[in-house]
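Q: What does the assembled structure look like for these inputs?
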Amino acid sequence: MKTIADLEAIRQKTLERVAYRKEGDSDIRVVVGMATCGIAAGARPVMLAFLDEIKKRNLNNVTVSQTGCIGMCRLEPMVDVIVPGKEKVTYVKLNADMVPRIVTEHIVNGNPVMEYTIGAAEDK
Amino acid sequence: MDFYRAQVLVCGGTGCTSSGSGEIIERFEEQIVKNGLDKEVKIVRTGCFGLCAAGPVVIVYPEGTFYSRVRAEDVDEIVSEHLIKGRIVQHLVYKDKNHEEEHNMALENIEFYKKQKRIALRNCGVIDPENIDEYIAFDGYQALSKVLTEMKPEDVIKTVLDSGLRGRGGAGFPTGMKWKFAAASKADQKYMVCNADEGDPGAFMDRSVLEGDPHAVIEAMTIGGYAIGASEGYVYVRAEYPIAVKRLEIAIGQAREYGLLGKNILGSGFDFDVFVRLGAGAFVCGEETALMASIEGQRGEPRPKPPFPAIKGLFEAPTNINNVETFANIPQIILKGADWFKSIGTEKSSGTKVFALGGKINNTGLVEIPMGTTLREIIFDIGGGIPNGKKFKAVQTGGPSGGCIPTEHLDIPIEYDTLTQIGSMMGSGGMIVMDEDNCMVDIARFFLDFTVDESCGKCTPCRIGTRRMLEILERIVKGQGKEGDIEKLEALAKNIKATALCGLGQTAPNPVLSTLKYFRGEYEAHIKEKRCPAHHCQALLNYTITDKCRGCTACVKVCPVTAISGVVKEKHVIDATKCIKCGSCVEKCRFGAIEKR
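A:
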């Protein structure tokens, strides 16, 4: 027999899976560029790394989605991290090893990883 | 639990299942495994989304992209484009009639959903109905927890009473009052019954709720059981709803497994269990006394009231009966409060109502709107208007018990009382739209034909009276109507309404009375001029060939009774004595030269 606490536990656990079907969620969005150029440059391992990291940390306010080519193919794999109410941050030339830092510093703690951003890449 | 980056929701309601959504799900599962996406993309079979006309419906989250009329062969493209590359497959995205240019429509931006407010249907098309955990994630069984830990039975009844919730089966009796009466009856054993014997032609609200959100009904019945002091509940559902029955049974099994049904629910000491009883589909069994007789194993016939079920119902014990949609509102009312519910809708009819849109309308499907919405908004904004540029003529609400509402009343707000005032009724929520090609006399005949078939025969007014009315109507549509037929119909209708035993007979004359009220001219044209103004009644039609005829002989070849004759390149003629009025020649003629009159 389940108790009310058990129900709450089931609710929390399942919520992670169904969260973005709920109305009015102000989620953090991770958008991975996955056109042919992105995929060729290795966007899939990057996306999988995001999924992995999000799962590990039990973040249920993050959605990961894909988008097409935005024209700067030389900078792929590119990822936008959009925190509601904040300016969009675009990361470029990512690989899977760079992802945990973005998740920890930016998504969890709110501090964008400046050296991976498009601004830093363009200055070089 | 795995984190899925994308979820593909496929409608598994009866409408989409019959247009092939099962095959689509299989194909998706096959394809995501093939592309190695099975750890990141989840396929979910949901209940009805409502827009059945656009079925089979597929929604892809997190974007919320709404794909319509998806075929199994389209699945590969959605997987390779959308799921792998994140590119939306534009040509499969649902397009609004008025916004053809806008693509990438998310569900909530579509005209069909914009004016809707979903309470009873809130989980339909959103959760997997066969998974209790998903229901719980969407606040399921929280209302029950709240009731069992924080509320006394009288508090529950007061909340329902204050919310102003009225019976969604059609009659609109305040639900809180019903519960109060049943709670006041003293007995060792009481019952909570759910009426899922949805019988109106064209109505499928209850089926969709049971298919899409069965746990909501179970939770509400348990709450009701606690409120009135019942320990057992029955869902009486028709056997013609196999998907609904299956999902309900799965849901009951899961609730029992979780201890949400059975003994000592959530450790509160309250016992309650729900059982399913299948009906054979007799319309009269939707009447509560007949329904209870049928559950008991007796012949499904009504009995006089009083005693009302709250005093003496199922197995002679005090019983409360509510409709599926009524129950589906309960958990939300408990969680969000009576004031929240009262703030939606109108003063006398609070909350929302689900309607099944059918007939001559573009967006056939299921809609839930706040009370007070006008018929015009439902038919033209949500329903997308009448197909093929035809003119709206009337809308039929309330099924065989309701009536037809003409153009001049399109702007009245929908409420129990306003609909009754104009000679129709809320009914369970079937809404059949008719255009200029529908003959109103024939519509009345159709509904009466239905009630004559479905009359149980127990009382004379219904058994014989409705048959006499049907005979008169059949005579009229065949062009054999006589002077005085209208008056006879009116007298019969009045007597049947006053004397029939149950709701079926008492409301059976309504379709005739309302069409007589608003379309008396059509009856008179049939009787006096032997003419059907809508060109519908076959017996009153005459086909003639006009001067537009070029003598191509196409009609001659298609006529099954060789009633058309003429010389090539000259005007042809139809022999009215031979013509069987099948209409084949009209369809074949490329010059629009054949007229129906």
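Helices of chain A lie at 4-18, 36-41, 43-56, 99-108, 118-123.
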